[in-house]
């Protein structure tokens, strides 16, 4: 029997039951892809992050939803860094993660205990709002962009909070030439209670109807806020029903800084 440490983390959270859940499993080497996928399905949270040591202060990192491996995941990266700082004995200031499709990512521990992630931020471009997309979302956005995902802007935070999309229809839709498979939609409005933007993220294309807190989406939202609304630095709120997450974003050229906190809610072992 093999055993691996298992941590369940609430990421982009300051206490339990906030933000987004991620499982983190440190390993000496990655298991077979089929096994990693089965473990993620067994954990049945938005993402399971696997971390393998590479060199001093550097780890290799992969992310799996219960259905697929994904090229970038912000909240599970935050969770992985939290585990290494809080449980792994890492005393340095910056952790580097080498990833398969997103290059090297960095997570810095700030003086106030928050963690700052340094991620790539891909270009965005205006795309049409089709009748099919409006019908699947259940409301018509005022404008939209394509990039890593399909980003749809609504007039008010209340419209965003009230969305009840047709997940089956949404799964097959998206922007042509997008970075991910279809069925990944960020929906946002400017403003909100004490924040610059309020959003939700629907991801049936990645096996998740709605994600509670999505770092990768905020790398795209950060670019939209900076380039189209004059907000290179912003505080955002992801309004998942019953949880919610505050995420600081700052666009710096081709990179984006995401800031948040994380808490450990479960610590144990996974037995194979």
Would you give an account of this structure?
The protein is of the alpha+beta class and 272 residues long. The protein contains 6 helices and 18 strands. It has an 18-stranded mixed beta sheet that branches. The radius of gyration is 18 Å and the shape is globular. 47% of the residues are buried. The model has no long low-confidence stretch (mean pLDDT 95).
> Which residues sit in consecutive blocks of at least 5 with pLDDT less than 50?
none
Elements, N to C (H/E): EEHEEEHEEEEHEEHHEEEHEEEE
* Rounded mean pLDDT score: 95
How far from one another are the termini? 6 Å
How much is the radius of gyration in Å?
18 Å
Q: How many alpha or pi helices?
A: 6
Tell me the β content: 35-45%
Which class best fits the helix and strand makeup?
alpha+beta
Shape: globular
Helix percent band: 10-25%
Q: Outline the biggest β-sheet.
A: 18 strands, mixed
Throw out a few tags for this protein:
single chain, 272 residues, alpha+beta, 18-stranded mixed sheet, 6 helices, 21% helix, 40% strand, globular
Topology:
Blueprint: E1 3-11, E2 20-26, H1 33-43, E3 47-55, E4 58-64, E5 69-70, H2 74-86, E6 94-98, E7 104-109, E8 115-120, E9 125-127, H3 131-137, E10 143-146, E11 150-153, H4 157-162, H5 167-170, E12 185-190, E13 197-203, E14 208-211, H6 215-229, E15 233-238, E16 245-252, E17 255-260, E18 262-271
Parallel strand pairs: 2-3, 4-6, 11-12, 13-15
Antiparallel strand pairs: 1-2, 1-18, 3-4, 4-5, 6-7, 7-8, 8-17, 9-10, 10-11, 12-13, 13-14, 15-16, 16-17
């Amino acid at each position: 029997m093999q055993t691996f440490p298992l941590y369940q983390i609430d990421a982009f959270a300051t206490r339990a039951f906030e933000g987004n859940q991620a499982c983190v499993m440190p390993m000496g080497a990655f298991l077979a892809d089929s096994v990693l996928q089965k473990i993620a399905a067994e954990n049945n949270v938005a993402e399971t992050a696997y971390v393998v040591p590479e060199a001093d202060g550097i780890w290799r990192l992969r992310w799996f939803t219960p259905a697929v491996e994904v090229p970038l995941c912000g909240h599970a990266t935050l969770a992985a860094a939290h585990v290494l700082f809080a449980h792994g004995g890492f005393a340095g200031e910056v952790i580097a993660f080498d990833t398969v499709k997103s290059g090297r990512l960095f997570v810095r521990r700030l003086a106030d205990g928050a963690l700052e992630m340094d991620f790539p931020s891909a270009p965005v471009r205006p795309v049409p709002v089709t009748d099919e997309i409006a019908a699947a979302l259940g409301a018509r956005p005022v404008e939209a962009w394509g990039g890593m995902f399909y980003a749809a802007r609504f007039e008010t935070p209340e419209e965003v909070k009230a969305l009840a999309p047709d997940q089956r229809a949404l799964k097959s839709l998206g922007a042509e030439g997008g970075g991910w498979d279809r069925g990944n939609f960020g929906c946002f409005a400017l403003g909100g209670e004490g924040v610059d933007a309020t959003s939700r993220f629907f991801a049936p294309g990645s096996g998740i109807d709605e994600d509670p807190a999505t770092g990768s989406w905020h790398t795209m939202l950060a670019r939209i806020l900076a380039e189209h609304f004059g907000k290179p630095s912003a505080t955002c709120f992801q309004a998942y029903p019953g949880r919610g997450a505050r995420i600081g974003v700052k666009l710096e050229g081709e990179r984006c800084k995401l800031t948040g906190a994380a808490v450990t809610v479960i610590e144990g072992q996974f037995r194979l």
